[in-house]
Amino acid sequence: MTQDMPSRGSAFRRTIALGAAGVLGLGAVAAGLVGTVGAGPAAADSGPRTDLTLTVLHTNDDESQLVGVDGDTDGDGTIEPDETRAYGGAARYTTLWQQLRRQAETGRPAQGGKRAVVSISGGDNYLAGPEFSASIEHGVPFYDALALSRLGLDASAIGNHEFDFGPDVFADFVASVRSTGGGSFPFVSANLDVSGEPALAKYADQGVIRATTVVRERGERIGVIGLTTPELPTISSPRNVRVRTELARIANDEASALTRQGVDKIILVSHLQDIDNELALVPQLRGVDVVLGAGGGEILADSGDRLIPGDRAERGYPLWATDADGRRVPVATTTGNYKYVGQLVLRFDRAGRLLGADDEQSRPVRVAGAGTDAVVKDAWTRTHVEAPVESHLASLRETVVADSEVPLNGVRSDVRSKETNLGDLVADALVWAGARKAAEYGVPAPVVGIQNGGGLRNDAVIPAGPVTALDTYDVAPFANFVAVVPEVPRDTLRRLLERGVAAAPSAAGAFIQVSGLAFTYDVSRKAQVVNESTGEILTPGERVRDVVLDDGTVLVRDGQVVDGAPVPVATNDFSARGGDAYPLKGLDFTPVGTTYQGALRGYLEEGLSGKVRAADYPVGGEGRITATN
């Protein structure tokens, strides 16, 4: 997840390791896709006879959106739990999923033969935010796990967000699924080694976390292989979980092993952050019949498919690509958030060869509470999941986490152009959280905090008086995690500050709120210029004149860097990855298992003992950032 937009979508396309023999970038295989994406095998009425019609019901990236969404997705994302939300939600989703399963199991196959159904999640089954905080507070079983188990899944891939709070919380999620008894299902990922995390290793020993699984339906054996993005260590907090990157080789080895066991229908469910990464992987695959992608949140739909108002299809459903043996492979995904059930209906002959897809039945099915396709809410899920989560969201409005002696300024134009006391507070919270987690994650305690102004989103002044838990989500709404960059060279830190003030006096999301240092900059001097898409610095910038740590250590004097040791810095993982063209890309960093919202709330409650004092956070800030000329 990154800032200023949801983690899902085309703005965050990534190139990942895909090579069969090593690491191969997306761009290197793009040429191999020419002519491979388009219509699938002909829905032939002649030729090999259909022996099995397989319906694959799939979901992915539901990310704790348990209580539904509005019909227009262009809103500001403010959480307003409301029974009248017209689309999505776990309770409606359950009803629709079960209806589609019954139809697939009992309906007459259009092409004859048997029918079977497989139900799969692509992962990212929960996400940091006010809804998931209900599960954290409630404990095992998590509400998200209860909702997912109600679907009767056959398997779930393991996404990056499963590790956002560290491996132990993921283990609690697995325990939550297991506690549901008949609703339990395995978690599959062939390129993760969880043996270094005891809480997860026990589930691997039990076969709950595994590379593959075999689903038995109507006398058929359907193999499911899982893959997780190789970017996992830099976009989440897997700690001692090892991630293998040679995805094609791993998938092919697993497919070969399943084939030797007599499994002749194989589904790959891969959480690679972008459907184009799945499409780039297919030309290297052998023996995989179907690919379900996850992590990108693309909307795939054909003309005539009913979408939630405000949603727009990017491409058709499903996509098709050609594998290493020249076979056409369907590739599908959904946009997540409990908004659509993916329904991929495939035809196989008696030898297990894929003949094609049912074009009429294969589609994303929207989850509607209004209109002719509306479904009622599943009573059990409504009672045991949605209702308590809605109650928790209401309680966040009423939960006071601190009392402030001073108004806290989060006005958009201010936090993006100058120091504010709310900016100081959030930057201090990053340092505080990084220091508390340093030993657990094996990083040095940070001495500097960096918060980009674009990540502060309440666009208001919080009046003096009570600060609520919901206020902390309004200020820090993104699922960005606190990250520690252990060694930031002093010149890199200077360039980082230059980037932060490059647009001044105009407002910009890259403006930097700081902790642990004070600096001055001269607006009349040359500003840094960067290539926004690559982060390359085109003009270095000469604005930053003096930088001094809180302990008196001088890092920059009169525009010149003072030689010395690098500085450990706490920031959010969006910035640590080079977001806003910050010059941190390429430096090692470690997410430390808490969101920046969690850091802010924890700092208010524990670090400041529930009291924001005017002496510490005066109106206008305490002079950490000084503009001259």
TrEMBL record:
<keyword id="KW-0547">Nucleotide-binding</keyword>
<keyword id="KW-0378">Hydrolase</keyword>
<dbReference type="GO" id="GO:0009166">
    <property type="term" value="P:nucleotide catabolic process"/>
</dbReference>
<dbReference type="Pfam" id="PF02872">
    <property type="entry name" value="5_nucleotid_C"/>
</dbReference>
<dbReference type="InterPro" id="IPR029052">
    <property type="entry name" value="Metallo-depent_PP-like"/>
</dbReference>
<dbReference type="GO" id="GO:0030288">
    <property type="term" value="C:outer membrane-bounded periplasmic space"/>
</dbReference>
<dbReference type="GO" id="GO:0000166">
    <property type="term" value="F:nucleotide binding"/>
</dbReference>
<comment type="similarity">
    <text>Belongs to the 5'-nucleotidase family.</text>
</comment>
<dbReference type="InterPro" id="IPR006179">
    <property type="entry name" value="5_nucleotidase/apyrase"/>
</dbReference>
<dbReference type="GO" id="GO:0008253">
    <property type="term" value="F:5'-nucleotidase activity"/>
</dbReference>
<dbReference type="GO" id="GO:0008768">
    <property type="term" value="F:UDP-sugar diphosphatase activity"/>
</dbReference>
<dbReference type="InterPro" id="IPR036907">
    <property type="entry name" value="5'-Nucleotdase_C_sf"/>
</dbReference>
<feature type="domain" description="5'-Nucleotidase C-terminal">
    <location>
        <begin position="400"/>
        <end position="583"/>
    </location>
</feature>
<dbReference type="InterPro" id="IPR008334">
    <property type="entry name" value="5'-Nucleotdase_C"/>
</dbReference>
<protein>
    <submittedName>
        <fullName>5'-nucleotidase</fullName>
        <ecNumber>3.1.3.5</ecNumber>
    </submittedName>
</protein>
